[in-house]
Amino acid sequence: MNDVNNNTVNLINADFHGIHVNLVGDGEAIVFLHGGPGSEQSFFLPHVLPLSQQFKLVFYDQNGCGKSEPSIDNQYSMMNEVNTLELLRKELKLEKINLFGESWGSMLALLYATTYPERVNKILLTAAIGVTAEGFKTFGIELEKRLSENDQLKLSKLEDGLESGQSSINDILSILDKYYVFSEDSLKKKANTSIKPRVNQQIGEDIIKNYDITNKLDTLHHIPILVAQGSDDILTPSLIKELLVDYIPHAKLIEIKNCGHWTVVEKPVEMNDIAKEFFSSNILS
AB hydrolase-1 domain: from which residue to which, for each copy (predicted)? Predict the structure, then answer.
């Protein structure tokens, strides 16, 4: 039993093949895919818990992330995460799943759906990145444009100290976090999540080299897809239209006003309303 925002919530903890899972609520399942790469499921909590009144919410830490065990060979890739999600679907005995993917999780959602299209009901993407590595690269370019000169200098020193162990990825994130939100006050609401450097590096490199689903997008034609992007996301709605929505004509794009990259943290009420309406609607897949 966990007390979240003064509401008692039944969070069922489980482990499947080393993957740490939390389940809450009853009804049709929504599987949440966290970002990073290398972050953890606690990013979503407690912000999306109101959805548990109507749906079964499935949260899990990806391989080597959060409370999940490292992979056997300590190697990480996009397709390993796709396979893990499919394993989780089978373990939970879910015929089809709804996916809620955030940031890197939006890419994982699309990778899974283009690999197992018959297993996906609907997809909600937020803080989306795109359908090719171009989105991932553009994210980095756009983020760097926003950095103040002072923060650029601080980051340069921290990055130099990573290999020697004099600095950590969390030191770097402490500089970058404010650029992910519209209002810095929102950072007070964000969980103190960690990033696993090895996972982040290896999947990041895999994305740069191999992420391109453009030749598989026809497999998504029957799956309703909604993209909720913050007005002030590092990848703005106009950019994500070019990087993602223009490739998937039936996908719908919604702009979340006065919001940065972390929509779930900054605008939880609006995001929950969007998710509730989308996943409960009678759109046939």
Answer: 29-268
CB 94 within 8 A of CB 121: no
Cis peptide leading into residue 197 (ω within 30°) = no
Q: What is the CATH number of the domain that holds 110?
A: 3.40.50.1820
- Amino acid identity, residue 70? P
Q: CA angle at residue 96 from 94 to 101, to 5 degrees?
A: 100
The Cβ-side half-sphere exposure at 271, using a 13 Å CA radius, reads 28
**CA atoms of 145 and 76, how far apart (whole Å):** 29
* Residue at 285 is within a domain: no
**More confident site: 116 or 194:** 116
Q: Is residue 228 part of a domain?
A: yes
- In 3D, which of 251, 248, 263, 246 has the Cα closest to residue 227? 251
In a domain, 68, yes or no: yes
Bridging pattern class, strands 29-33 and 56-60: parallel
Structural domain for 52, as ranges: 2-280
Residue 35 falls within a domain, yes or no?
A: yes
Number of Cβ within 10 Å of residue 199's Cβ equals: 24
Burial class (CB in 10 A: 0-12, 13-18, 19+), 276: middle
CA distance 54 to 276: 8
Q: How many domains does the chain have?
A: 1
The tens digit of pLDDT for each residue in 71-108 reads 989 899 999 999 999 999 999 999 999 999 999 999 99
Determine contact, residues 124/97, Cβ cutoff 8 Å: no
3-state secondary structure at position 254: strand
Question: Within 10 Å of residue 206's Cβ, how many Cβ atoms?
Answer: 18
Tokens of residue 241, six digits:
């239209």
